[in-house]
Amino acid sequence: MHDLIPRLRQARIIPVVRASTAARAATAVAWLQEAGLRIFEITMTVPEAPALIRALAADPDLLVGAGTVPDARTAEACLEAGARFIVAPWVDASLAEPCRDAGACLMLGALTPTEVRAALAAGADVVKIFPASSAGGPAHIKALRAVFPDIAFCPTGGVDARNAPDYLAAGAAFVGIGGKLVDEALIAAGDRAAITRAAEDALGIMRA
Hints:
Layout: H1 5-11, E1 13-17, H2 22-35, E2 39-43, H3 49-57, E3 63-67, H4 72-81, E4 85-88, H5 96-102, E5 105-110, H6 113-121, E6 126-129, H7 138-147, E7 153-155, H8 164-169, E8 175-177, H9 184-188, H10 192-207
Parallel strand pairs: 1-2, 1-8, 2-3, 3-4, 4-5, 5-6, 6-7
């Protein structure tokens, strides 16, 4: 087991930060951090994401990872910037070596049992189940856990504070929450209160 997994299990959620600008992504992280969240996945769909990862990773209180990582070269750039975990919503064996060399945790995406086996064979420490909600939700996680009882699953896609407890009860090690927690429209509107409320809902999951 990778040594980050217990910390991720304890946190229960990974906020997935997607935004059309680095400034909005940074604002989302700042507001969520003020509310008490400490783990963030910065997706490569954010412009200049590695630079944002570098800035955030300079804060020793934060655990920062990179999401939607398309190839080994991008993984290397993110790891050099300070990412502690690498996430892809598909199976890509080329990501394993840079993660192993950096001591980072690798999360690869899967949906079916065959894909879960492929992700594990490719070097995944965690299997990301995406898109979770459209694949059957918590019932799908429960079914996969019956076949893979020792695997750390992280469902993402349609997960929010309302249904996250169901995913955790079904056997997820932790969950990824994106748009329901990092709502770009609210960030663009400067609605810090709404983002804070979403963070408080998430923190309620963590404290349950």
